[in-house]
Amino acid sequence: MNIVITGATGYIGKHLSKFLTETEGHRILPLGRSMFREDMSGHLIQTLTHCDVIINLAGAPIYRRWTPEYKKELYDSRINITHHIIRILGTIKTKPKLFISTSATGYYPSREGEEPSADTTVFDEYSKVRGEGFLSDLCYAWEKEAHRCPASTRTVITRFGIVLSPDGGAMQQMLRSLKMMKVATAIGPGTQPFPWISIRDLCRAIAFIINNESLQGTFNLVAPQQITQLPFTNAMAKAYHSWMTVKVPRTVFRLLYGEAASFLTTGQYVHPTRLLDAGFTFSVPTVDKLLEGTDHHTVNNLDLSHYMGHWYEIARFDNRFERGLIDVTATYTLRPNGTIRVENRGCKKKTPYNVCKAATGRAIIPDLTQPGKLKVSFFPGVYSDYYIMELDEENYNYALVGSSTDKYLWILSRTPQLPEEVKKKLVTAAERRGYDTTRLKWIEQL
To answer: CA separation (Å) from 306 to 20, 229, 367, 396, 398?
Structure first.
């Protein structure tokens, strides 16, 4: 499908664009702010006429001091752009099948200093109340504008929790002091609700909504776990071996951010009732799952002679050794002494001819009781891990290969193309192990 995304260059937009193109096979058409100028109306009309789905992520960052001028920017970047899209949709004959407009859990009433208990009010999509203050009013106006979408287009409002991933957003900021000084920082008092969702599940949830044509209306995109800020910080501190956890008083954030500090010192208890009822399964339902190490266990049985031969690289986590390479293959040959000859080959697109190169190395199985764990060397005395984690054990037609860290991941096949059901099977297996599959780069095979 052709999917238009506003805000495609932002943190969420980049992850979502990559996921929808490389995992789901869609074509992404990014809409920058310049497309909403009056002199670009013709181009915008043409783009929206030829798209199947619109995902509206546009909006200035909320993590700044809310001066009167910045409040106007927050409003204009959300409501005005949404209004512009809706106005165009009302004029075109061929309308998109689906319009997804984002919002936030800030729509709901905030809680401050309230630990979850049996009597705690948890809001879901059926709750008829909304909060007070600027953030709630902003979400309400944003959603109200989106609901003006023509009736012939399926409309979905997604209320995001705090989106977490180590490579960006709020979590990257939280990890800064942890990694540099081994000190975890909690926002006082630490008892405020912390609605969150992993970037992986956010991308999967949006794909789920796109693929299930019966879904419309409002959906909370939050993990099902109810947690407050201090336990979340303590879990991060444990995972990253912090020396201590420091509570920063709310007054510090109020001095720094003014009214915007309420975004950090309060929160909402929110549940994804409609997503769960529709059959969506969270790959990261708890903070412990978010922070746990990646599962690198390998296959228990390996017929090495059967594994030898030619493999095509279908997908990978990009790395400095393969950056920019297409048409990547690996050929393994078992030598009489039990070592393995490895020949990797790949090409870079150049004009008028592609430039191809090959590298030859060797591999060994250091422990015969763990046949799925190999060591590969392309430089004398320097070995890297090669872990065969998933394998077509009957025919050896495909494999999922990683290492002792989560920096490397490959999907390999005996043929240049893999059936979609096999690709999804291997991606699901990688997600189950804790890999962020939005990082997978699908490789062009010539």
So the answer is: 35, 51, 19, 7, 12
pTM of the full predicted structure? Answer: 0.75
pLDDT digits (tens, 9 = 90+) for 137-162: 999 999 999 999 999 999 999 999 99
Q: Which of 97, 249, 116 is nearest to 188 (CA)?
A: 249
Tell me which residue of 309, 330, 422 sits closest to 430, measured CA to CA. Answer: 422
CATH architecture of 2-163+188-225+252-284: 3-Layer(aba) Sandwich (3.40)
Token duo for residue 90 = 């009302």
Quickly list DSSP for 130-158: ---SHHHHHHHHHHHHHTTS-TTSEEEEE
- Name the phi and psi angles at 55, rounded to 5: -115, 115
Q: How far is CA 40 from CA 31, 117, 157, in A?
A: 11, 53, 26
Task: Map out the domains of the chain as residue ranges.
Answer: 2-163+188-225+252-284, 304-442
Are 409 and 387 contacting, i.e. CB atoms less than 8 angstroms apart? Answer: no
Count of all residues that appear for the chain in the document: 446
pLDDT tens digit sequence for 276-298: 999 999 989 999 888 887 788 99
217: exposed, middle or buried (Cβ count in 10 Å: 0-12, 13-18, 19+): exposed
Contact between 55 and 206 (Cβ < 8 Å): yes
Question: Three-state secondary structure along 56-106?
Answer: ECCCCCCCCCCCHHHHHHHHHHHHHHHHHHHHHHCCCCCCCCEEEEEEEHH
CATH number of 304-442: 2.40.128.20
